[in-house]
Amino acid sequence: MKIKDKKLHRIASTAIIYRKTKGEIKYIITQRSLEENAFPGMWTVPGGTLETDDYINTQKTTKDQWYFGLEKSLRGEIREEVNLDVGKIKYLLDIVFIRPDGMPVVILSWYCPYKSGRVKLDEDNIDYAWVTYPEAKKYDLIEGILEEIAMVDKILKGKNKDSVQYRC
Length: 168
Known about the structure:
Layout: E1 10-21, E2 24-32, E3 43-44, E4 47-49, H1 69-82, E5 85-86, E6 90-98, E7 104-116, E8 125-131, H2 133-136, H3 145-156
Parallel strand pairs: 1-7
Antiparallel strand pairs: 1-2, 1-4, 2-3, 2-8, 5-7, 6-7
């Protein structure tokens, strides 16, 4: 596989959004449009890629830098894709892969509680569901999403994050 630029990576982030309802922990998943180039019709979680427009036209935190650019970008993607606001965003894990076009990609996966809003999907998604971890197993999820939901489920139920392993 030919890599375009070994130092250049596309950066994306995803959010495992949860809410506690009647003693159950539920997670929002969305079904991608059938017109999507990658994983059409499959189920996933909200997220997207970091673009310079996400921060370049905002006030810098220091003379030369923008702090929390990725978090602001992820919050914007969540609002855009499902119209929700979330609470504190916590780091879960990172994923790296190389797209078929040779572009290296870094995905940072986060988890956060639902805070407010009513779900309204954008044009990139055609359906959504709030599901428990066992219910999520019934959906055609993009590879790895179920395992990430399982990790968050264990964390939220008081199991040690360090004891959760993903095929290592």
